[in-house]
Amino acid sequence: MMYQALPVPEMSLKPSVYETDFYAWTQEQVKLLSEGHWHQVDLKNIIEEIESLGKQERQQLRHCLGVLLGHLLKWQLQRTHRSKSWLATIREQRRRLTIVLEENPSLRPYLSEANAISYALGTDLVVQETPLDYNDLPEVCPYTLEQVISDEFLPE
């Protein structure tokens, strides 16, 4: 029995606007959505971009916590090197963290998990910026989440 090959549909090798000019793609999608042309919207990529935005907010939260935790560790473990710059960074990261949480209150339940993840990032910062090594640092975060985010807390 002989089989006849089915015709293969031609696929466009031309890159989409999404791939070649992201800004133009966003403007096109906004126009389509605002004009009610739902059937022409690039739904697959819109879903991907919205998901990516959510991930970016979580990443920003972890980044702020990591820098904050690193500077709290430096403050605690290098008393003789304490500086106005470290204090300013601690305050700045707390402010950034507050802003992220005010703009995204649904991230609050993620704070404990983010704090644990961010502690590793904070230890990396300490090792990069000081003579301290990983074995000089506590294995787990020595501060409660309440201490980390409190404007009043500085480790001794």
Overall description:
The chain has 6 helices and no strands. With about 160 residues, it is mainly α. It is elongated, with a radius of gyration of 24 Å. The N and C termini lie far apart (about 85 Å).
- As residue ranges, the low-confidence spans are none
Order of helices and strands, N to C? HHHHHH
Radius of gyration: 24 Å
Structure summary, number of beta strands? 0
The assigned structural class equals mainly alpha
Gross morphology is elongated
Helix count equals 6
Helix content: 55-70%
Beta-strand content bin:
under 5%
How would you characterize the largest beta sheet?
Answer: none
Distance between the termini: 84 Å
Mean pLDDT: 92
Structural descriptors:
elongated, mainly alpha, 6 helices, about 160 residues
Task: Tell me briefly what this model is.
This protein is mostly helical.
Topology:
Blueprint: H1 17-20, H2 22-34, H3 43-77, H4 84-103, H5 111-129, H6 145-149
